[in-house]
Amino acid sequence: MSRLLDRVPAYVREFESYVPSRPDPVLMRQYGVTGLHRLNNNENALGPPPLAQEAIAAFDPHRAAIYPPGDAYDLRAALAAKFGKSPDQFLVGNGSCEVISSVVRAFCQPGDAVVTADKTFAVYEWVARFSGVEPVLVPLRDQAIDAGGMLAAVTARTKVVFICNPNNPTGTWWNRQTLETFLAGLAGRAVVVLDEAYREYVTDPDFPDGLEVLTRHPHVLVFRTFSKMYGLAGLRVGYLCGSQEAVDIVRRTHIAYSVNALGQIAATAALADDAGHIAATRGMVAQARSFLRDLFDGLGLEYVAGEGNFLMARTPVSDTLLYRRLMREGVMIRTMTGFRFPNWIRVSLVEEPAMAAFAAALKKVLDKP
Amino acid sequence: MSADCRLAMDVPSDVGFARVLTAAAEALALRGGFGRRESLRFQLTVEEFFGCLTETVDASQAIRVVLTGKKHLLRAAFDFEAASLSLGGLNVVAAAPACAASEPAGDLGLLLAGKAADRFHIEHRGERRFGLEAEVDKAYPPGAAVQAPAAYPAPFTARAGSDAGQLAYAAALAAAAYPAWHCPGSFQTPGKFADMIEDGQVRCVVATDAAGQPAGLLSWTPCSDRGLYFSGPFVFAPGQDGAAVARVLVEAFLSLVGREKYEIVLSLRATPDAPDGYFESLGELKLCREDACRPQQVLFRHLREDAGLAVWRHPDLEAFLLDAYDRLAMFRNFLNAPSPTSRPRRESLLGANLDRKRDLGELRTLLDGEDLVDNLRRHVAALRQRGLGNIFYYMDLSQEWEAALAGDLTAAGFTPSVVLPHGGRGDLVVWQHVPAA
């Protein structure tokens, strides 16, 4: 009598499923608080842009009975118009996590390898592992993705290189020169994914625009998301852009109809009305970053304040203990042990009241023996 | 990691097939390079456990037997269905063991099986299903005296250890530098430690100095599906350098396991070199040797956010658990587990692990029975008679029947000491026996 588990590939059997945080009401009950400041997921505290909010409010509930466009037709057209591309160069997914999975399925088979940093967004590594693909992890250098190390890690088995730019959780980023040198050195030996989930937060003109880069490097795929700057995390919309040939390959392994109608409508509306929203968000983030720098300087805590709507700080106690103590004060941060940064926390940069609540709670819990 | 050699068989519940199993056990031992004595012990273990089970398991049923050969041990696992299971004869203090439908030969066989194996474990897997695992260790020569390097030039780096020679050397350095309490038993036989690493049973990080010499060691092994039990950090470099070595060891350890399936790491034998800020204290155990006692911190940390858990709670343990979880800022759903009103069998069975190097006896109830309190007392008396001053009992709060035994433990002289979150299937309470004044 064989067990069900005996029929599962070893690379699935050995993989542990991710356990997300409990819903807020459950957490509040568990920790005995009446409110929760969510500083753990880098959500945009300002919400979606105004036109997206209007589109969501205007959504006719009866439309929930109708299938959405299976290939996000209108949203791809809006993306194409905004960025001067063909709609066929875009593939929309249920968050960028889905397109990560589609890319790995399209280019890799069990026994292949992908290259990524050891301390970066975890989903590249996870998808590779549960697909039977080896994730080759390159250590960060000075808290930044090491371009030389990444190049040196590429072998004949490497099919995809994942670069999170700016990197989550350090906020460090490759400038134009670093990226061009890397791509020249790679010389098309692997597909390069530039994950630009946080690119809208970066104002430095030396930050490379992946959508421009891919016009010169056809093996580059760019990931972007509506979950961060555009404040639509709850609707799960992300996309990739690449050469028509590359996107056509990924489309073969991508599930149609995976993005819901409301998400597509809201994302399309968000694109039409983003300038003021982006400016306001950047202002809020800059203010919060300055606030936290002052806080951590005052407490004598080491921190890394790169780009993106988050900041990472080293804590004098275990990050997971700090999480539990902060939760009792109604503040939720992200522990970094799972990012291979033991005793660091990542804090989302949001509006002043939440930042002030975090500061007060942190001081209080660090005062405890 | 070395590949295990594994044989799996569905064997009819008929003692006539015992020879098939002993032949397989012998071949496995031979292939793994085990000595004649270990081979015979393993064959005896397999034969006698199987013989006993054929008297318990219905003749129409098969017993699933999996024999596994690792570099450092041989394991026999039996998976079977039985209406009831009474294996009181396996108790280490048993004098006249009894088997189901007992006949003298079967009783003696069970006693022999229990003594021949280095350890065994019985698990009730629900309804009529049980699992029994027994292991026989390979014999290794004790480690030779080692010479520590004269100096350790900085800087220090740490990475996963895999070089057998380096591992054996580092284990021997640790065994020479630290009291036995802090060291895994395998450090006394460094060849075994290296084999356990190769088998994947134990993992470790080794810190090296600028000259590539081992400057520190930290090892760990799973204590449950959710938890890792670590030993160390063992630091060979002195002074400030030692503190730097401890930090790189702990950072490397946590970075290696931080994205794995485990929820927690913990240690009942962490060294005083554990750096500040990386671990929480769960409390203290009182360790005694020759009438002198000292506290030992139990260290712990989560690897991810705590998602809460349901635990069974006996009324006698309520105040202790409330205080412990409040101190840890850890949420738990409590389910009531009152004392049992009836017992499933006459004879209870206790699993016992004896560790003379640490003067340590560890107990847990494998099968509940009417004689549990007396059985606990008998075990305590036997362990004390053998000079073991530290007697711990482990209770898994994910099991209602285990949690319900709190009253029995108190009656047998045990006191709850610390809660190990995710230390078992769920949270584990460590009880310590306190001798009557």
From TrEMBL, chain A:
Query: What Pfam families would the database entry show?
Result: Aminotran_1_2
The positions making up the signal sequence are none
Q: Where is the Aminotransferase class I/classII large domain?
A: 38-361
Q: Which domain of life is it from?
A: Bacteria
Carries keyword Disulfide bond? no
Listed GO biological process terms: L-histidine biosynthetic process
List the keywords (alphabetical): Amino-acid biosynthesis, Aminotransferase, Histidine biosynthesis, Pyridoxal phosphate, Transferase
Give the record's pathway.
Amino-acid biosynthesis; L-histidine biosynthesis; L-histidine from 5-phospho-alpha-D-ribose 1-diphosphate: step 7/9
- Catalyzed reactions: L-histidinol phosphate + 2-oxoglutarate = 3-(imidazol-4-yl)-2-oxopropyl phosphate + L-glutamate
Q: Which residues carry this modification: N6-(pyridoxal phosphate)lysine?
A: 228
**Assembly behavior:** Homodimer.
Which family is this sequence assigned to? Belongs to the class-II pyridoxal-phosphate-dependent aminotransferase family. Histidinol-phosphate aminotransferase subfamily.
Q: What is this protein called?
A: Histidinol-phosphate aminotransferase
Q: Tell me the organism.
A: Solidesulfovibrio aerotolerans
TrEMBL record, chain B:
Q: This protein's superkingdom?
A: Bacteria
Name listed for the protein in its UniProt record: Uncharacterized protein
Taxonomic lineage from the root: Bacteria, Pseudomonadati, Thermodesulfobacteriota, Desulfovibrionia, Desulfovibrionales
